[in-house]
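step=encode ok
step=design start
structure_in=
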């Protein structure tokens, strides 16, 4: 009996040794495999985020032949993209970066430290405002120009092609205050605004004309008034009232001004004469943008709950060139050259601005929220990644 116990004990000990040895061999095998994978990934210079982003890009034909994209951003919140010259100006809640889309290189970047950043771009300049705080700065596409601290909170700002900046601040003894300075920080306009609180400003490419929108209450009604001003004048060139409307955008095209509201589109020629492109009550604004010539592409419905949506391509003289009926409500629209690019929840479609013809499309998922087509590439933003979607051109008959 004792001999059997010894034999059984030897067998158990031997079995434990074999199990331990087997576990060690498996562990070393796993370590070797992981090490080999890491070496291969290092050699190939592949990172896990890029792999994950490519695998997660369901529906988008990413630039698989182009190792430049996708490019990870430093934030997934408050991302804005502005095509500027042949670059992409990218603003996040952390930084501003100028991307060369041809090679994917960041040519200029800085962490702004602003809590509520708002960006305006024109020519080779961009102005970044910490809205509601007391700072703003001017940069070119490759270097800083200045950063200013104001006495009161900055409300809004806009930059001209020549680097002049018009900005509005809250007033000490007035409702608001407006200043226009050139890139050397010389003041050309400096006046109080008592007619209302400034909510938007614009400046023309030469820095000689500006416009601002104020909001005030009259007889229990909200009135938004757009004012036009020329440098050297002591009073407004023109004033235009919009009752119970929100001014969403002021944008100069040469000496003329586009005014886009939540329920109308207007055009002011030579700072004085207003023309209604879409009258108040005829439209509900869905989304809009401008091409490099400052011509609007404007998406609207005829009433708030309508399923039918339309894309209007508007020329620089305030006339609608083309109207395109859209199959569903879009999320985003952009324009470049003679094309308008529309982002829907499940696809991207490019249209001809001249005749409304559908030129091409790409499948996408609902995570995509920004789209811009530059030259032959269609750049998209999803989560915290910039990628390229392949637009499949329609066959020509």
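sequence_out=
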């Amino acid at each position: 009996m004792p001999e059997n116990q010894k034999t059984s004990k030897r067998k158990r000990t031997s079995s434990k040794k074999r199990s331990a040895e087997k576990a060690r061999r498996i562990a070393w095998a796993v370590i070797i495999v992981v090490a080999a994978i890491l070496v291969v990934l290092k050699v190939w210079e592949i990172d896990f985020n890029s792999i994950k982003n490519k695998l997660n890009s369901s529906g988008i034909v990413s630039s698989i032949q182009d190792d430049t994209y996708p490019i990870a951003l430093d934030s997934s919140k408050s991302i804005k993209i502005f095509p500027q010259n042949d670059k992409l100006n990218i603003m996040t809640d952390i930084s501003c970066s100028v991307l060369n889309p041809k090679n994917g290189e960041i040519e200029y970047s800085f962490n702004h430290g602003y809590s509520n950043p708002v960006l305006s771009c024109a020519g080779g300049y961009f102005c970044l405002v910490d809205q509601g705080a007391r700072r703003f700065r001017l940069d070119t596409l490759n270097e800083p120009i200045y950063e200013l601290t104001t006495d009161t909170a900055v409300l809004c700002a806009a930059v001209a092609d020549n680097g002049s900046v018009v900005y509005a601040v809250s007033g000490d003894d007035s409702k608001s205050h407006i200043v226009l300075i050139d890139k050397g920080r010389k003041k050309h306009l400096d006046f109080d605004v008592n007619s209302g609180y400034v909510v938007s400003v614009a400046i023309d490419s030469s820095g000689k004309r500006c416009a601002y929108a104020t909001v005030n209450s009259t007889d229990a009604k909200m009135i938004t008034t757009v004012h036009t001003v020329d440098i050297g004048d002591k009073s407004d060139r023109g004033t235009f009232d919009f009752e119970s409307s929100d001014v969403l955008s002021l944008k100069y095209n040469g000496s003329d001004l586009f005014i886009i509201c939540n329920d109308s589109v207007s055009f002011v020629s030579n700072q004085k004469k207003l023309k209604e492109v879409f009258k108040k009550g005829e439209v509900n604004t869905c989304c809009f943008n401008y091409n490099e010539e400052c011509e609007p592409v404007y998406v609207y419905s005829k009433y708030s709950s309508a399923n039918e949506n339309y894309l209007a391509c508007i020329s620089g003289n305030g006339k609608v060139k083309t109207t395109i009926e859209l199959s569903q409500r879009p999320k985003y629209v952009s324009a470049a050259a003679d094309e308008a690019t529309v982002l829907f929840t499940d696809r991207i479609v490019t249209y001809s601005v001249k005749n409304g013809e559908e030129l091409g499309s790409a499948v996408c998922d609902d995570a995509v929220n920004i789209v811009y087509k530059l030259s032959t590439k269609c750049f998209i933003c999803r989560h915290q990644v910039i990628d390229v979607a392949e637009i499949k051109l329609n066959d020509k008959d």
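step=design ok
step=annotate ok -> The two ends are 96 Å apart (CA to CA).
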